[in-house]
Amino acid sequence: MLYLPEGRYRLIAVTDYDHDGKYEKDEVSGVYGLPSQVRKIDVREGELITGVEIRTASADERPVRLPRECRWKIEEPIIRQATGNGDLLKIYHEYFSLENAQIGYWNPSSFMKMFGAHIYMTQAYDPRKVPLLFVHGTEGTPQNWIYFYMRLDRDRYQPWFFYYPSGIRLNLAAALLQEELRELHEKYGFQKMALAAHSVGGLTARSFLIRHGSEERPPFIRLFASFATPWNGFGLADASQVLPHKSIPVWLDLGTQSEFISATMNAKLPSPVRHYLFYGRADKLTGGAEPDSRAAAGCAGVYGFDCTHDGILIDRRVYSQFNAILEKEMF
């Protein structure tokens, strides 16, 4: 997985054949295309490109020689991501720390190098249990869901967590969620699952369900519960565009007049998905008012509680209502 600025790229594979912990010029093991004509890939902002394959040479084969115009730095240090999609991690693991969450928001490139963007499990997959996928919001981590996690009936549900840098463009976050979930569905073949999202994670989840669900509609997703989601974006994100040197990618999508907000809110959720909307009356970030009519339209239920933006995830009444919905919709 690579997280790159918009532009045109050649892809070159390098293998640490001598195991010295460095990438060296004579260790080029493959290219995208042919060695004599390396293919280029155009990357656009917020776009996810998949299905790129590079055949790599083994140590006993002739090394790949690159054209002269392909120059790269030698002796680059090797960066290994210690985890991958579907790996097992405890919810209190240090990967999910507040410090890492802030890196994901303010410096998503560094986060992607260290962790990527994956779905994590807390226990081995069990086909007898229903997957419940949690999506965090801005500067969030799976640890935001600890209150729900600790009270969840583990005999019936298996909690999964989508952990991603919250500073990336929301279209890209939705595309990554689609790709990681597709991989797990192909591997395990589960028939139904529920999706719960907090704050901006609700916009990411809605975008995933609309834009990617329309291409390969995921009938296994039965339930979508959103908590304290800013359906109309933020005025502060509008102001940030006046000072582009202080902007981060996600702010382009969180403006009240952004193309993302317009496209995501004017489209309907797939009909098989039952949406339950939770909001906090004391939520200053979203105004605490009744949710946008576009978000409420078609909802199976809209619930308001005397909660703050983050407090909605640690409120007994909120969880009790959510649990009742789970039991009703998933069994």
Report on the biggest sheet: 7 strands, mixed
Q: What's the total count of β strands? A: 15
* Shape descriptor: globular
Mean pLDDT: 89
Report how far the terminal alpha carbons are from each other: 36 Å
CATH superfamily placement of the largest domain: Alpha/Beta hydrolase fold, catalytic domain
Can you put this structure into words, describing what you see?
With 331 residues, the chain is of the alpha/beta class. It folds into two domains: 71 residues, no CATH class; 237 residues, Alpha/Beta hydrolase fold, catalytic domain (Rossmann fold), CATH 3.40.50.1820. It has ten helices and 15 strands. The strands form five sheets. It has a seven-stranded mixed β-sheet, with helices on both faces. Strands 1-7 form a two-stranded antiparallel ribbon. Strand 5 and strand 6 form a beta hairpin. The longest helix has 19 residues. It is globular, with a radius of gyration of 21 Å. The two termini are 36 Å apart. The model has no long low-confidence stretch (mean pLDDT 89).
Question: Short description, anyone?
Answer:
With 331 residues, the chain is an alpha/beta fold. It contains 10 helices and 15 strands.
